[in-house]
Records
---
Amino acid sequence: MAGQTVPPPARMDPAVMLTQTQKALSIFYSGQGHSREEFKEAEAWLESFQHYPQAWVVADALISDQNSSPPVLFFAAKTLQTKVYLDWEELEPGMIEPFKQQLVRHLATWSVRRREGGESGGGGGGRRGGSSGGDLGAFLNRLCVVLAAVAVQVGREGREYGGKEDTQHGRMEVVVVDTNWQGVLTDCVNLLASHAVPQEHILHLLEELPVEAHNEQLTALSRPDRQAFREQLKALRPHVVAYLAAVDVGKEAGLSPPQVLQRKIFRSMGRWVSYYRDLPPTDLVENRILLDAFAVIAQGAARNGHERLFQSAIDLLIDVFVAYDCSLPEGISLDACLPLAQFLVPNVFALQPTYLASLRPSSLPPSAGPSPHGDTDTAKGICMVFVEMALSYLPLLLAPEPYQQEALLRLLLLVTSHPEPSVSEYALPFWYELAKAGGRRAGDGGSPGVGERYASILQELLRALVERMVYPPQDGGGGERAADGTRRRRRNLMSFGDAVKDVSSLIGPSPCLHALAHLLHATLSTPTPSLPPSPPPSWRQTEACLWALRSLAPSLPLPPSLPSSAPLDTDTTTALTVVPQLLSLLLSQASPSSPSAPSLPPLLRVTIHHVLGRLAPFLPPHPPSSTTDLLPFAYPLLLADLGSPAASPSAARALQEVLLACGRVTGPDSLPPLTLFGQIYTASLAGQLSFGNETLVVEGILEGIVARMDGEGGGEGGREGGREEVVQRMVGMVGEHLGDVVGKEQQERRREGGGEGGGKRQVMVEQDLERLTTIIRVSEPRLMGRRGGGREGEREGGTSPAVGAVQSLLPVLQAIYDEYKGKPDVMEKLCRFFKHAFRTARPKTAFYPLLDPLVRFLLQGLAETRQSSFLYSISYVVSEFGPRRHSHNDSADARAGNGSGQQVGWWLERRGGAGAWRGTDGRRGWPAEVRWGLARPGGGERARRMWGQAFSLRAGTKIRELLARLLLLLEEASQIVFSSVLRNGEDFTNHPDMVEEYFYFASKFFAHCPVPLMNRCRRQEMLVPTLPQTLLQSAVVGFVTLQHKDAQRAIMHFLETFLSAGQPSLPHSAPTSSAAPNGSSSSVLSDTAGMQDWILSLLHSPSLPPAMTPPEQHPLPPTLGPALLFKLFHGLAGESARELVNHSEKPCLCGVLSRAAETIPPPSLREWAYAALQAAVPEVLATPQEKQEVWEAVCHFGERGREGGREGRDRREVFAVVGKFAEKCRERERKTRRKGRV
């Protein structure tokens, strides 16, 4: 095909298209003798030609060609399936009946060819007959799918639908033609039988009919017609069941193998049962098909010689159990289920001998090869039937009446005990459902609960689970096989561990703990010093018991935090008695001083670490149950194993959990946290400990010990100072090493005559920056942490660890920037450090002297490197140090300075006595910015409580000056971004990361301080007077135009925040002047009105200049308001509408549209929205009625929002209308794009 000039497919003659398609298929399926370019051209042709009306004729011609190969035939059948699904309206009404007859003739012709060629039936595999098209069976099955789809399209209560294209209006005119096709089933069967089509394909058609009736890909079928056809099939269910039961498998032996026909019967029956679940159970009981399925299963998968027949019988029984599941609220009632259960349960129990026989290796034929676990295929199939039956009849298991419950539970126990984990895992969902339904509750009328009634079975189940956790012997494999085995075992351990928790929820943790302790003592009864170099299998049982103990740990009650005279419950007493004994036993075997420690297998040592970590709260003494402190024994074990390559990750995780749970690792006279940190840091630098494992331990030290220390010293870290001093010394230790590395790098660069740093030292710099970030991030106590409440009052006037760390590290950080500013990875780590320093600094006022140099530093980095990570860090200056209009913190957080930068209280500090309200100019009263920061929806009582407190400004802190600095930061950062990075529309597409970070950064100003920004603009104090217009213009350019999900989300977040800033935010019951002197609610409302006017003036400003406008199909309206609505409605019909409209994610296109409707005045909204809808959404994607519906919904929502109506309900309603409109537009856009009309 290469080098040939062919006419466009839309005007190509069908004969020419057939020739081109045959050539493309020859190239595509030959695989040899053609270049890569020819193969790509052939592939592109085969993908595109299916979109055109000539494809009907071409596909039929390919099937009619007796010389077509099976792959070509399969491709032609797949083409017809695509046309029936998506392009049904291309068929004229008079062409439908001939097309149907032609399909039947093709089935009959190729069935004969297949039988004459000696090919066995049932080829292709799978419900759809496979997708490779490697045999005639796959092609014939696909033709049956096409015929079933045709039946759904035309078999609508005896009516036949066709369509003609109205080229003048771009619509499809629907034509209804009367036909004699009154019964789909009768017509299909008679039609196929009249052409001598084998029974195999009639059965496959019956299998596909209910599937196609529920197929949403049939785009030409309306929902009422689809539902009507489903009801028509539903009425035919008894006839279908009777027909399937009447098929004589032996009579058709000459046309199709009996096993193939039997498999088709099972599959067809399963489909009808699955899709139409209200078939009377008596019809199934009286039918012989289920008995045939039980007979097939009783023979086993390997013995009957056809595994697919065995699997189809299993699938049929599973479909029956799922369809008649009496455990679901919407399922069949228990009384109606009893006749079917009385038929199925005995037949299922009769499969138990077959299951037991499958466990023997002799059950496999010689051709299958050796298998230690017997016929696993048969075992898996029967296990699935056992489990599905138990799940379906779960209410019978919970009933107090005798229904062979214990026999069924022992059947499931037998499944769980299968030696092959892939088989025994099938039973685990049942135990979970039993635990969820039964639990430890007592039965009705005070009868025993499930756990008490079946305690002996559940105890056996626990032992069976431990046996399944035993590590299998090594098979000698390596490489990918060994890695795959490790992943599979890890998954199995997690699954069986969850089952241990299910058993605990049924019988309680105490019996489980006693049983595991007994098993563990039994496996450790042999003295471990006598172990030979190759340990005996006993360690595997020990490891399995330990993993079960690890899984049980979350179910155990935690030790009481404080001594109490109240009696403890049984489970707590048992845990405090048994767990320390088990931990002591483990530590005595695994401790570095123990003679048996060197001979412990690595896997057993790793599992011991897991147990120590999970049971860490039981290591300290808890009198009177346990008086021995096990921490001094656990600490050397974990530290010693940190140096082991195989055990280091688990030891690090366990050490972290011990530190977090206990707050110490040894007694008071042992290693303090700073010394321990130094040892860990030194080992990591020496390569003895990986960086990830070091991070785990350091986080445990900081959060478990340092964050609990007092600010001024004392406690366990008294010899090294308080928390702040310890953190400073840790930072100094890392900073000193970091300075040495950077200094050596600078010296080397100077010797080499320039260049930038890199290589091994760059990795060391990145890791040290990560260490510093971890220290700053974790060392500060959680604001409402485990000690309760904030700690700001304890160190009022003190210096936060973050503040001191940044002060001491500024020269080193500057040197890192100078040396590595061309390395994005290093700069990202550096910016991440600043981000966490901003977030963890307490009080915020202590950080004010550092703000100016840090902001200068970050702006310099943004201007010189043009990396979005600097903008990311700068945005945290606004969120952490700026006021927030909508706050969720209470007044206590505001007074203490706690929270995440959401209160103007960061600038305020409580002083003793009743202070006066004074502004920055010395006059009484709040500045407008402060009143705006305190005003928020739902503020009510909290606002009055806050305004009633005695606040005064901290000495040397001026709110207006700080706000001015923040606004100047917006201008300077915007100037850098728009002058060097986002200069035109093409830059927006090339730098989506910068677009994302910039709009998140800009949105914070409208969330935190919109009124000061408005006042600065109105006073013409901005360096760039048109910055607000530029922000909106840039958002309109990037919205929907950018094909980058995260950047689009950022722009939508900015637009939603910007539009929300103009909406009233005070509660209806605003605080009175007595609560806030000279700060009446009227002044705040005037600010709100001013914001509304300012935002509307921005929406009336001119649209984008040509330099900022990327090439588009539609020009933008001249003003920003209509341009914004145009972009919003254009996004509804775009390719990415599914992600943008999804209101389960925040932000979303519906949210922006609703905010715009609330902000824009109703007259302008009606005018702009109508014009935007007409211009943005073409007629081919939405009808005028659909546009009218969306327009009315949006305008009505805007009016209701201004009236203060049911906003939540109205918002959901407009979301539903807009989402439905977008879905329709997307479907039509996809369909018309296939045809080249868009």
---
Amino acid sequence: MSDISVKINDNDKFIINKNMNINNNADKPHNGKPITIMRVSPNGKYLVTYSKDDESIVGWNIANVEEGQLKSDYSRTHKGYHEIEEICVSDDKKLAYIHDIYLEIIDINNNQIIELNAKISHLKYHYCTFNLKGEFIFCNDVKNRHRIYHKIIWVYSTQTKNNKWICKGIYKIPKDFELISISKYDKLYLSSNNNIYEWNILTEKSHDFRWRIKKDIRISSNEKFIYLRIKNKIIIYSIELKIPIISSLDINNGIKSYNLLNIPELYTLLLPDELIHDDVLSSNRMWNSIMEYCWKECLNHLEKNYQLQKKYQPDSSTIPQFIFDIKTKYTFGILDGYVWKIKLEERISKMNENNNKLNNEMIVKGLDSEDSSSDDEADKIIDSDMCTSNVENKEIYKYLNIYLFNPYMNTINASFQEFSEINELSTKNTKQVLIQNSTKWVIKSTGGELKLLIFKKIIINKRNKWKLICMRIDKFNVQEYDLYEFHKRFLHGNKLLSENDILILTKIGLFIYHFNENNNFISLNYFYYMNLNIYNKYELMKNLQYHYKKSFSKSTLPLPNYNSFKLSDKWVLYVKDNRESLLKYGVELLSFAIKEHRLELMDDIYRKCIIHFKEDLRNNKIFLSIITSTIPLLNEYYPEYILRYSLETTMVIDSLSYTIKYQDNNLHLYSFHYPQIINLTQSILWTKYIILYHKLYIKHYTLFIILNVIQCLLLLLILPISPIFLVTFYILSKYHFINDFNIRLYKNNIVDIALLTDNIFGTIFNEYDIFASFYFYINDNFLKYMSKSTTPTITFMIPYIKFVNYPQNYNWFWEFIRPQSSLFVKIISENKYKTWDGEALINFKWNTYGKYYYVMIWMSFIALLGCFNVSATIPQQYISKDVQKQLLITSIILGFIHLSFEVRQIIYNPIKWICNFWNIFDIIAYVLPIFTSIYWIQTDVRNIQLLSFSCLFLDIKFLLFFRVFESFGIYFAIIISVVKQIVYFLVVLLIIIISFAHAFYILLSPTEIDFSFKENDPNNPWNIVPTYKEVLDNGAINSNSYIIQQPDDNTNMFTDYRTSLFAMYLFLTGDSSALSNWSYINNPSLVILIVLFSLLIVVYLMNLFIGLLNMAIAKDNNRVSYLIQKAEILAEIELLYLLPNQRRWKAWFPETIYYYANFDKIHKEVKKLINDGQWDADEFSEIREMKQDLLNKLNIRNDETDQQLLKEIREILLNNKKNK
């Protein structure tokens, strides 16, 4: 084995010696052969090694050894045809290893073989490990019914008896993804198309970060960061910010990589975690010197405790080959065939302390001197290159740990308690000084102004002095406050969080400043406004406790509020110009700019978000969420920004170029998200059943034949109801209660041959039972029949990042009463659905969960409709009273269920509910049948009026369910949108009709309430009814009335104002019979009113009304209105029908959604956008190059862009002529 020693001479020259020292002593572990693989258990209690040359496995107990050489307690010889590729061990000594297509598991305690309760046919195992809970996780290839191999993740519980482990989880990795590794923290690391994905098995949450993937890649993570090492570069990805905050750190830079050892999570990247030859680390002088130091410190420690053998001396030049275990923070080295355990973190900490002391001596000396210089001194300090590098990398470490402020939350919480216990509120405290080590902070406040000065101790002429390093002055917009009072006491308290970080509490809130030693600059990293303009000690204490409980008692600092930006322009500029701060606080800042109508600031933030996205399309798409998160505010104040954003980001992608793939024709605008890992855990019972089915074939062939015959007979019997059977299996397959694993069992280490062959249903019947085989056969042939030819498609990204997500913190009770909403629910704007992105977003929601819940709602309403209509319509001689009563009770129950959702909708947003006509219609459709049914049951009276209206509203409500389909939905959308547009015209028309009805009522109403026959009242109904005279035999007519028709309530409709209104409505529709009973010659006033009504309303206003209808219909006769209507339906389903935890499922509500688009349809859509002038809508678009790439792929020439270019060329030529 190759041993490496590194020495550092006085001239900082690195000398590397390699010595070969091989010992073939047969008494040593592995018979002295080289160790190939070494693995540590999840919690660092046991270790196993494997030697390829010796084909042996050795176990080492490390739990009771603090440091030094380990002793082996287990040995096993591997007698397989193939060498071991992967090995792992649990804390309770369960050993598992992979060799080719075999997985073997042994209990080291009793040397017994452990079996799995599900053994699936496979091609190859890829990975195996134990997690921290002792569960066994492995990945292998499993073949499906189409003979296609998929990678399957299996999770087994090891806490079982009889040496048999029970499967508790199955997960399917998408076909386009490759497995990188499985972490003992239940995390999968996958790669696809230069993307790396972290997927948590327990929470099923994922993080994706994009980088050009190479072969040498290593990953580790904690709750805040994901760390990657690709070759010699380290990338640190923030989980909270969802961007890489350090994108390229070269570990070959010894000083830089040395300082990163302050971050234990990086050990697995900077130190090997397996016995492989690492060219990057082996050629790194700094790493060799660090490991030499740690090794010698270990030997010195053992020698002092008399635990070191004589043949191992601290001055030995032989250094073991190490691996690192992040859980225990120990390294394990191999030397002379034995495993050594070393306290790496403790050794490195000691080395860092010594190095820091050395650096402090090089930078500052004489720290105990009390001499100081004036505040205006600004002499520069000249550091050595090494110290400069050390300071620079200290900033990297602080940046990672300080930026999110989580490490200081305990200190901040304690500071609130200290500030609230101030004994006296001084009115002269305008200057405060804090000193820690070699840094002095001076804080001055002068009425709405905060001045900070940083001093460093240096030695000048053998005397210690404070030298001014930098200064910062912040002025706050506090004009509304009394500046004199502010001057008396602006500061309430302060606290040093570290040497370079300070917390300051003032009358306007909490500040956190950071001093950057690299560029000598003080930055305001945090400002939270609180109104603490209080002069009473007890009131201040009470106020601080209130703010602490409300905002600062959590694990992270609260986001800056509105007044934080309003009071400090510098804070606004810092957040806007700092990339990470913009991402963390950008939503609040943009909201502030919108509310304050600061258009220039809005444009700056908008542009910076687009620029950051353009800088790194792969990783910076999260910046777009700043814009999308403020869409509700933009819709209220500046809706044109929504259209602008929609047009500028339509047809974008978060990759460097567009890719064309061939997909089915029906996948246009089909939406999906990455990674699409499928949870098949529900199919564990099905998998066990199929395994049992095949075992029956192997062990009890006769019973197997009998079972198949019975299944065939049952299949023939259920053929009449086969649709129900197929739908049932479809639902089970859709929700993964069954799977299509192609199971093969081992029998005497030989794969069993097919069960049944050459049957009419094909080879699919070889793998499953008769029922499943029948379903898969019908399903596959149906899909084959329905499948269409493929067409080229391009994948786009929906730019509404985090638009559909719900807040993660919620209360179950209040979520049922008044649920929290997502941005999708809050704002349903037509500007958002004018591009394909909005439609693709709706398609994703509809296909994921919307259509299934909508069908369930529809079916339950059909049950209500059927029960009530049957009881109300069928004559009683055909239905018994008991059945009728049961139907009415069912109607009441179903009605209350539907009504409860309407009540929840009213509670959620009463104003929005009232403004939606369909909601009012819905509640009438539910309340009337409920009331009618209860009334019928209680009184046993069949009220036909109530029944008729109840049936009418129920029938129309049934029709409204068709509005979700585009063919019907467009017309429903037109009906509502047209009413909304002409509602004020209808109000004007109604007022005019009411006025005419009033006029006719006064003119034509009888003078007396008594309607007895009187000659002197022309409006008396007895005087306007038809009269009949007698015709004598000689043909003469008797002048006296012979017969008078008795008047009814409708003879004179103007006797009551209500019927007068109805008469005007009839006149409006063309029925003037209500006015035909009077003589027009004797009633000129009546004629004038009729003419005015006809000309003003019937002729003019009604024709105007028809014209407005045409205009409104033309405006809303498009798909946008239909999509808005469908979005409202989906929003209602989300809020009222999904459970609170379902609204947090990442599979249903992902942060980023993608969609396919048909190539030919893209061509047409882009041409349409160009013709409409909407393709290049942004005057400073940062994604123009991306869109140009799409135009090139579509072979489209943008004449508008060419014309603009020609115009610019002409201007340049013209300017040149003028200059000449």
---
Amino acid sequence: MFLRSVSSSYILLLQTVPRHKVNTRYVLRTLCEIRRKPPVSGFRTSCAAVSVSLYEEEPFHEEETDSVESRGIRPNHQTFTWLLEGCLKRNGSLDEGRKLHGQILKLGFDNNASLSGKLLDFYLFKGDLDGALKVFDEMPERTVFTWNKMIKELAFRNLSGKALGLVSRMVNENVTLDEGTFAGILEACRVGNVAFDIVEQIHARMICQGLGNSTVVCNPLIDLCSRNGFVDLARKVFDGLRTKDHSSWVAMISGLSKNECEEDAIRLFCDMYILGIMPTPYALSSVLSACKKIQSFQTGEQLHGLVLKLGFASDTYVCNALVSLYFHLGNLISAEHIFSNMSYRDAVTYNTLINGLSQCGYGQKAIELFKRMKLDGLGPDCNTLVSLVIACSADESLSGGQQLHAYTTKLGFASDEKIEGALLNLYAKCSDIETALDYFLETEVENVVLWNVMLVAYGLLDDLRNSFRIFRQMQMEEIVPNQYTYPSILKTCIRLGDLELGEQIHCQIVKTSFQLNAYVCSVLIDMYSKLGKLDTARDILVRFAGKDVVSWTTMIAGYTQYNFNDKALATFRQMLDIGIRSDEVGFTNAISACAGLQSLKEGQQIHAQSCVSGFSFDLPLQNALVTLYSRCGKVEEAYLAFEQTEAGDNIAWNALVSGFQQSGNNEEALRVFARMNREGINSNNFTFGSAVKAASETANMKQGKQVHAVITKTGYDSETEVCNALISMYAKCGSISDAKKQFLEAASTRNEVSWNAIINAYSKHGFGSEALDLFDQMIRSNVRPNHVTFVGVLSACSHIGLVEKGIEYFESMNTKYGLAPKPEHYVCVVDMLTRAGLLTRAKEFIEEMHIEPDALVWRTLLSACVVHKNLEIGEFAARHLVELEPEDSATYVLLSNLYAVCKKWDARDQTRQKMKEKGVKKEPGQSWIEVRNKIHPFYVGDQNHPLTDEIHEYFRDLTKRASEIGYVQDCFSLLNEAQQEAKDPAIFIHSEKLAISYGLLSLPSTMPVNVMKNLRVCSDCHDWIKFVSKVSNREIIVRDAYRFHHFEGGACSCKDYW
């Protein structure tokens, strides 16, 4: 009875005192004093009077309760409940709680559920997990709330395994899981990187419990799935929610953005806004982050407008995302404007701007902003310092980096892994390899990032030996590599072309299962592509790349590099077909492949796709467009694409010059080159090479020499590629002496291309013996011949009638030099045999070829049949030609001529009728000559030149003089007698005769006459020019579609064998 009254008095006393002021020691002491006095009606007043002493905070002592019990007062479970609450409220020590726990056990109150709950709260509050688990295990009964409390604590401590174990116990003990349980276990899974199958089991249990539409559990499930890459499951859960709150939308939008589904994230945000759900700052920041990743500048600007409209312009979180977006898109002005207008800037704001400035190469601005950050009272963290070190690395500011190194050490951040990596990278990029190595040895070498940086450091110095030594040391010290380790050394193998070592590293990659990693896979594809093993690269792409866009575009780039343009485009189409959205690299290389194939229509389609995808302003892509349109002969489009590029970009200028040259717009190419010089644009090897080729194609010796002068002035005359182009240019312009001089001057820089150029030059100019002598010199100089070399050698043999010697050279390609003959070599042999009149042997040679004869082989045979008037073999060759190229006009023209020379007039007329029916037109013959810096074109029987009368009169005079010394005109062989009588003789004057007449009439007597013709010179014209060179006492050089003819003194360099 007494104990009951004391306990009741104790409770009454506590009710009069604020709980956060309870002092357990004085409570017990006051109760003892009350025990000595009889109860009075003013008990409440007495309690209130003594309650002042309870406000004091003094620690609890076990002897206090012993003293109470010695006075005959026995506390009950409620007493200890209030005592524990007192410990919790005043943050009592863990030791006090343990003593109370001991008293509870001693008095047998441990089986009280309420008191056990308070003990559990105390231990959890004090962080004693072992004590909490012990109390939990010994509790007489556990409510679902208690289970949830423990699961939440274990999740907080990242003990996902134990949390899952508790859930299993709940299931085994038939405890019904509620929303709190699932929320706790999902949190445990989120921090514990739990396997996907476990997440699926949790999801299934949620559905069984009827919680499939609960936002309390579904929202964290969406977030969990998204964080672990299970975005499909996240979307399934999201779509299954009948009612979605703000958190549902935000979790799903954020998840899509983080899992490379940026466009889906943006669309979902639009859906949310259309439904009238007000976006939160976090939702806006997530969708802005998505825009940043896909470089969707237009969408980002629209979202910025929405931010202003909704009044979030002052929200720090949203502004940070906007600053990051604009920096990533290169819009520095907008980023700085947002920053300057922010009412409050936190450390993230400054870090975002500093990092953006560093990434954009504005290192000094980043440092100035850091100083402002300190003035605003914000101290730097690791991210700040890392960005500043990166800024110094980008500027290669070693001194600035060293100062930052000292500063990080002073702040105590020097041991941070990120900063260690950034500092080591700084020394590596600044080529201070000794300091880098010393710093590396001083750091915690277990950090794999530092090992990777050292691999890159030696790689930048092209020091493969030390790079591989570092790699071997990693293996010896059992440093576990990551996805950046192997690519670091593979990139060095790429730069140095060491395929063998790259293949060894590939074996290590397979052993460690890193071939499944997208980044490693893309670098492997890059290595094999750049080092020529495209089949291996393709095999890796098909087996391991999946939908990694970098791997696919790397493969496309590899095909383009080796001019497998058709395969590049096929791979590009396949990539799009399987749903991979191309990046700027893919578009650039696909357009380059179209340029290589001169596939204008497909190139324009890809151009349109790149614009839709937002890559219109990408500089490499713009340069590729310049190449595409210039190579396809689209002059206006090429200039338009050129104007879109950055002014002064050498690649764009080179693309324009090279493209025009390759498409036959050689004069346009030379105009661009001249404009480059006027505007002070620096030319390089590629520029000069293209300009020289353009001059050679127009046979414009004067412009060629002007380009040569610029080359000499700029010091590029010692470059092998330029020297080789000059050799070819002088040869094509008809000056074999200048070509030889250039070849001799380049003695120290010669390569196989140099030898090929001079051999082919002599061969085309009809100096076959000299060409073969040069080939012998090439072999003696230990320069190995290639396929191009043998084209020149075989052509030389053909032009001088060395049939058996030519066959010997042809057979030596395979037996002596290991070169499989290509179609062009077979054409040379056929030409060699037919020039010698060995048509039957040529036919047998074609039939025994190891490859399928192409149209050029049959055309060569047919052309020879016209010369030798062999109707049977000619018709045989013509049938094959018509099968291969039914629309080619040359076939019908040659066949018609064959019938004419064989006097088969009906067959000739039938052939011409077929040409009319098929719409086939003969290419008109044209010759041109340069006189006083102007090109003068002529056609057969031309009457359009301003000096037509003078030219025709002078032609007649030349012909008369030539006839006096033996020239006999033969231009009617293709006409029957009736046609010869009906035709005006003037219309049979071939274009080269008119061009030569004009040249002799207009040029100084000391200058040779250089004429170019688009077709082969006929026998009559050849004879006429020989006689004219004698009567005029002038050197005449004619370049036709096959070779050069040097006429002088009544003889030709071809010795009438062409």
